[in-house]
Amino acid sequence: MISDRAEQLSESQTLKISGRAKQLARDGISVISLSAGEPDFKTPAHICNAAIDAITEGFHGYTMNTGMPELREAIAAKLKRENQFSYTPDQIVLSNGAKQSIGFSLLATINPGDEVLIPAPYWVSYPEMVKLAQGTPVPVKTTYAAHYKMTAEQLRSHITPQTRALILCSPSNPTGACYTLKELKEIAGVLKEHPDILIISDEIYEYIIFSGEHVSILNAAPELSDRTIIINGFSKGFAMTGWRLGYAAGPKPVISALAKIQSQETSAPSSISQKAGLAAYTGPMTPVSKMRDAFRERRDYMVEELNNIEGVDCFSPPGAFYLFPDIRSFFGKLTPDGEAIKTSTDLCLYLLEEHGVAAVPGDAFGEPGGLRISYATSMDQLKEAVRRLKNGLTSLS
Ligand SMILES: Cc1ncc(COP(=O)(O)O)c(C=O)c1O
Question: What is the pLDDT along the chain (397 residues), one digit of tens a residue?
Fold first, then answer.
């Protein structure tokens, strides 16, 4: 009854751990979750009000399949003003979250057997979406020393005649790392030698950057715009995860193919959310910078505290709301109950079950030497989480 397509998909490890954390909490056990992939803030009031107005004014119908023209114009203006990208509104498609934009981009461009390069550690959904498009995900292993950023040489060594696409994510989920203009220029140099490779650039964390400006592969090499799809959305920067609104901007043939798929699968995202998105891109940005300042304070606190724990090595990433410490020194150690810690999953399960703190194992992101800590929670919760982490990790011998 179940298709091969569904059978070959992996269950999301992030959901597995958060499911177990929720179960423990239901059983009355105190659990602090450092596994959230979403801001803990409320959507700014002016955005909510625009949605309320849309409801009371009766903006209840379908919009165009690709999204409201006014919103696509606002996105084109934003991409010009903030990113120096030139897109016309008909090169933009709005979807139910950036996730759908990425999935449909792959469905629109990947044929069975095509290889898609994904620097690891990666966002959990990329390889699974490639598999859904019948492509072959090819992880490109990176190193902690390079803050898990793929070098031009690592990229070059993974390209084969079957390579059709590269997925870049900066700022990164799960590491918070951001590519610099220089690094992107080097990567672009390799891509220019391979004109058949499409670039999917996921810039969903663009507004959560603590030092310097967001840079995209298209800032490094604008000439790649005829084979680059920019993915962005409202979930992270504006704390709008539940509104389900994201978009893809790219070359017209690709965007038309994506729109065709969308027209048969889902149609446009909610009209109410689109009105909210319009308010987000045309309204004040102060709420975004306030959230960013709060994230910065938490990052600084967490990085310092984690590095104070013997055996943990954690670089301070410039973006997103995640840390990805190196925890390899704990492998081979024993819990007080005599259980051996062999993998990052063992370590995360031990920390969850014995110390009530939930992080996501690096195994889920294709990098077994780390674990992902989300600091999208209050300072009080983070302080208690640090106490539990210290307790748990120093009890291993
Ligand atoms: C790297 C990355 N891309 C895309 C998404 C999906 O965002 P959306 O909520 O807009 O679908 C996420 C959400 O976790 C993400 O971390």
Answer: 999 888 888 876 667 777 888 889 899 999 999 998 899 999 999 999 999 999 999 999 999 999 999 999 999 999 999 999 999 999 999 999 999 999 999 999 999 999 999 999 999 999 999 999 999 999 999 999 999 999 999 999 999 999 999 999 999 999 999 999 999 999 999 999 999 999 999 999 999 999 889 999 999 999 999 999 999 999 999 999 999 999 999 999 999 999 999 999 999 999 999 999 999 999 999 999 999 999 999 999 999 999 999 999 999 999 999 999 999 999 999 999 999 999 999 999 999 999 999 999 999 999 999 999 999 999 999 999 999 999 999 999 9
Put simply, whether the predicted model's pTM sits higher than 0.90 gets the answer: yes
Q: Amino acid letter at 119?
A: P
Pocket residue to mutate for ligand 1, from 100, 179, 204, 365, most atoms within 8 A of Cβ: 204
Q: How far is the CA of 323 from the centre of ligand 1 (A)?
A: 16
Long-range (24+ apart) CB contacts under 8 A made by 298-302 are 298/375, 298/379, 298/382, 299/176, 299/210, 299/323, 299/375, 301/379, 301/382, 302/373, 302/375, 302/382, 302/386
Pocket probe mutation, ligand 1, options 14, 99, 100, 374, max atoms within 8 Å of Cβ: 99
Structural domains of the chain ordered from first start: 4-42+287-394 (3.90.1150.10), 61-282 (3.40.640.10)
